[in-house]
Design goal:
The protein has 138 residues and is of the alpha+beta class. It has a single domain, classed as hypothetical protein PF0899 fold. The chain has helices at residues 2-20, 41-51, 129-136; strands at residues 23-34, 61-67, 69-73, 79-82, 96-100, 104-114, 117-127. The chain has a 4-stranded mixed beta sheet. It has a 3-stranded antiparallel beta sheet with strand order 4-3-5, with no helix packed on it. Helix 1 packs across helix 2 (41-51). The longest helix has 19 residues, at 2-20. It binds zinc ion. Zinc ion binds at residues 73, 75-76, 78, 89, 91-92, 94.
């Protein structure tokens, strides 16, 4: 299932990055999932809760924000958000470019202990659907 392989890739990345930072655990994962990413949020949550066991994310809270498709017109420069897939501006007829909503963004918070003090790190990364598929099918 699509969501399962994406969650698996997400958890692997979290492990890697936590290791880099000597983080002891990840507390919160915030995902922004684009409406065009093809991800079912319900399935994504189930997959996350299934796979997080035994990983550095086992106690992490998952927060998912849905991102509508954000488009910008090449002709009249207008920007707007929509839930529909459209490619032509209905004002001027020019081509619409996607600014946001196609990919998955993750914001991860984790705690690491440095000289007895807890330090919180926030990182943001973008997982494009294509990039993930390339990774998992390798
Ligand atoms: Zn336009």
């Amino acid at each position: 299932m699509h969501e399962y392989s994406i969650v698996q890739a997400l958890l692997n990345q979290c492990e890697d990055i936590a290791k880099e930072h000597n983080a002891t655990k990840i507390e919160k994962i915030v995902c922004k999932i684009g409406i065009m990413s093809g991800i079912e949020i319900h399935l994504f949550e189930i997959a996350f809760n299934t796979f997080k066991e035994g990983t550095i994310c086992s106690e992490a809270r998952l927060i998912i924000n849905r991102q509508d498709l954000k488009l910008k017109c090449e002709g009249c420069d207008r920007e707007f958000e929509t839930k529909e897939i459209i490619s032509i501006c209905d004002v001027c007829g020019d081509v619409l470019n996607t600014i946001d909503g196609e990919d998955i963004y993750l914001m991860r918070f984790w705690e690491m202990t440095l000289m007895g003090e807890s330090v919180y790190i926030l990182e943001m990364l973008k997982l494009s659907n294509r990039g993930l598929n390339d990774n998992t099918n390798r």
